[in-house]
Specification:
Chain B: Belongs to the ABC-2 integral membrane protein family. The complex is a heterodimer. By secondary structure, chain A is of the alpha/beta class. Chain A folds into two domains: 213 residues, P-loop containing nucleotide triphosphate hydrolases (Rossmann fold), CATH 3.40.50.300; 63 residues, 2-Layer Sandwich (Alpha-Beta Plaits). Chain A is 36% helix and 26% strand. Chain A contains eleven helices and 13 strands. Chain A has a six-stranded mixed β-sheet, sandwiched between helices. A four-stranded antiparallel β-sheet of chain A has the order 11-12-10-13, covered by helices on one side. Chain A is globular, with a radius of gyration of 22 Å. The mean pLDDT of chain A is 91. Chain B is mostly helical. Chain B has one domain. Helix content of chain B is 79%, strand content 3%. In chain B, a hairpin with a 2-residue loop joins strand 1 and strand 2. In chain B, helix 2 runs antiparallel to helix 3 and helix 3 runs parallel beside helix 6. Chain B is globular. Classes of the chains: A alpha/beta, B mainly alpha. Chains A and B meet through helix 2 and helix 3 of A and helix 1 and helix 4 of B. The complex binds adenosine-5'-triphosphate and magnesium ion. The site of magnesium ion has 4 residues of chain A, from helix 1.
């Protein structure tokens, strides 16, 4: 990294009463990077995002955003951030168009310029037809798109997206990925949280996996897979018994066995020979699937949980 | 969040602008506005004029006036109070706790105190809209003159500021809607006893002192003095009371907003 990082956290802590939601994390995000937070529910992703967004005061540790101190320079930093919170907080008293123009005013953007950007952004998220509608009748995915458009209204240097595509249909998600990719191409730094592995793999140059308020792994998607998972994963389903029952029976095959409610995951560098070994021991799974390791597997190995629970 | 940057009038304006947008958005807001305006007018007619006909003229501090002339300035002060309070209690609380309007604002350069100032200004404007209309009614009924109406108008703005800021402070500390019942009971008690329908000297001394402590009394005294053109030095005390009330309410509201929103 040659430039000063856009975000730098050292021993960052957030407590709510006695409860520690973020437990001393270290973080650096470089300009132009797309950075992702993965983690199960309650891991502390949103709490971290809110601190980065300068709307939540850190309990301890050091945090610098855009080279400034969030506590002292909050308004100045926020002027250059675009924030899409986990829960939509669009203004129900205003129309879709006014939601953008009113928000633009919060940044001190002149009215005419605000209207110009609103028109452009509605186009960008394909909501032009809904410009005059109130927010309430919009579908969940449309609201999400409007929230993201709203986050762009100040042409931010750093965009924070907390689960941007949760609740979107596949088409809307792909549209959004494409839009976010274009932003990134334009030099905007993206920080996002997600429960979708494909999203993380598609969008993020670098990821951290959070669990229990701590960062448990960090790296590029490829690096994480190489480091924490095996090359291949065999998914075994058995008709008769629960997957747990087979953990002992198949012990020693592959590097690791993970029973899920409906299937058993067998981590190995060589899927085919693992399957032969299963058959040799006299077991006949009702279905067998060999696939490459994904981030999903990394996540499972690191947190013991599936991503979408 | 604490910040070294000064409050910005542009950002306060943007907060007000949001409410102007909401006003444009549809009939529901107008309906609320409208009904709030009519309440004090109805009291003026039913009690001031109606009951006034039974009572006849009143002698207050050695001056004779019609009962309607006595009640009208009180209702004027009351409309400033209800206008501002309605805005900073119900509407403010709804935006604060339910639709998260202020959370959205806080993700921008806007600061909690700027939200408080913008909302308070808006509340005061609403109260002033009521009092301006009410003053026109009073002029038409011969209960004040245009000159004294002009003198009374800024006083009603101050009343709106004072009640608005205390209402806002309450909205940032209460737990839920049920607590508003308490606020409204208090508001109604003040409405009945603050020298609105009878001079406070009619009550036992203990009650009189109690009334003297509560804010609507000072609002009524100030507004009545100005709209009837009977000035007294004690009105400076009324002004001071309301200014302090506005300042304390605003500072509590700003601080609480910052604390809750940046948790
Ligand atoms: N304002 C708050 N007051 C008290 N506890 C809180 C508050 N906000 C978050 N928490 C707690 O902090 C922990 C982390 O929450 P956070 O919202 O950061 O998780 P998350 O990783 O975003 O989870 P999710 O995937 O469900 O969005 C949770 O246990 C949550 O209950
Ligand atoms: Mg979250």
């Amino acid at each position: 990294m040659t430039q000063e990082p856009l975000i730098r956290a050292r021993g960052l802590v957030k407590k709510f009463g006695d409860f520690t939601a973020v437990d001393g994390i270290e973080l650096e995000v470089a300009p132009g990077e797309a950075f992702g937070f993965l983690g199960p529910n309650g891991a502390g992703k949103s709490s971290t995002m809110r601190m980065i967004g300068c709307v939540s005061t850190p309990t301890a540790g050091e945090l610098r955003i855009l080279g400034m101190d969030p506590v002292k320079d909050g308004p100045k930093i926020r002027a250059r951030l675009g924030v899409c919170p986990q829960l939509d907080n669009l203004d129900p008293d205003l129309t879709v168009f006014e939601n953008l123009t009113t928000y633009a005013r919060y940044f001190g953007i002149p009215r005419a310029e605000g209207r110009r950007r609103a028109t452009e952004l509605l186009e960008f998220v394909q909501l032009t037809e809904k410009a005059g509608s109130k927010v309430e009748p919009l579908s969940g995915g449309m609201k999400r798109r409007l929230t993201i458009a709203r986050a762009m209204v100040n042409e931010p240097d750093l965009v924070l997206l907390d689960e941007p595509t949760t609740g979107l249909d596949p088409q809307a998600r792909h549209l959004l990925w494409e839009r976010l990719f274009r932003l990134k191409q334009g030099g905007t730094t993206l920080v996002l949280t997600t429960h979708y592995m494909d999203e993380a793999e598609q969008l993020c140059d670098r990821l951290v996996v959070m669990d229990g308020g701590k960062i448990v792994a960090e790296g590029s998607p490829r690096h994480l897979i190489d480091t924490y998972s095996t090359r291949e994963v065999v998914e075994l389903r058995f008709g008769d018994e629960t997957p747990t029952a087979y953990v002992e029976k198949l012990a020693g095959i592959g590097d690791r066995l993970d029973p899920l409610p409906d299937r058993l995951l067998l981590y190995t560098s060589d899927g085919d020979s693992a399957i032969s070994e299963v058959h040799r021991r006299g077991f006949a799974p009702s279905s067998v699937l060999v696939r490459r390791s994904t981030l999903e597997d990394v996540f499972l190995i690191l947190t013991g949980r599936t991503l979408v629970d | 969040m604490i910040s070294s940057y000064a409050l910005s009038p542009t950002r306060v304006g943007a907060v007000i602008n949001r409410n102007v947008g909401a006003l444009r958005s549809g009939p529901s807001y107008w309906l609320v506005l409208f009904s709030g305006f009519f309440e004090p007018i109805l009291y003026l007619f039913s009690i001031g004029v109606g009951v006034g006909a039974l009572i006849g003229d009143l002698n207050v501090d050695g001056k004779t006036m019609s009962y309607a002339a006595f009640v009208a300035p009180a209702m004027l002060a009351v409309s400033a109070m209800t206008g501002a309070l309605a805005e900073t209690t119900f509407n403010f609380f709804f935006k604060f706790k339910y639709v998260k309007t202020f959370d959205a604002m806080l993700a921008t350069p806007i600061r909690p105190m700027e939200i408080a100032l913008g909302e308070l200004t808006w509340a005061m404007l609403r109260g002033s809209l009521y009092t301006a209309c009410f003053l026109v009614v009073m002029i038409l009924m011969g209960l004040t003159t245009p000159i004294w109406a002009l003198a009374a108008f800024p006083a009603t703005m101050l009343v709106g500021l004072a009640f608005g800021s205390v209402g806002m402070a309450l909205s940032t500390v209460i737990r839920g809607w049920q607590d508003f019942d308490l606020v409204f009971t208090g508001q109604f008690a003040m409405f009945l006893f603050s020298g609105t329908f009878s001079p406070v000297q009619n009550y036992p001394l203990g009650v009189e002192i109690l009334i003297w402590i509560t804010p609507l009394y000072h609002a009524v005294e100030l507004v009545r003095g100005l709209s009837t053109g009977v000035l007294s030095i004690s009105m400076l005390g009324n002004v001071a009371y309301l200014v302090v009330m506005a300042a304390v309410g605003l500072s509590i509201a700003g601080r609480r907003l910052a604390k809750v929103l940046t948790a």
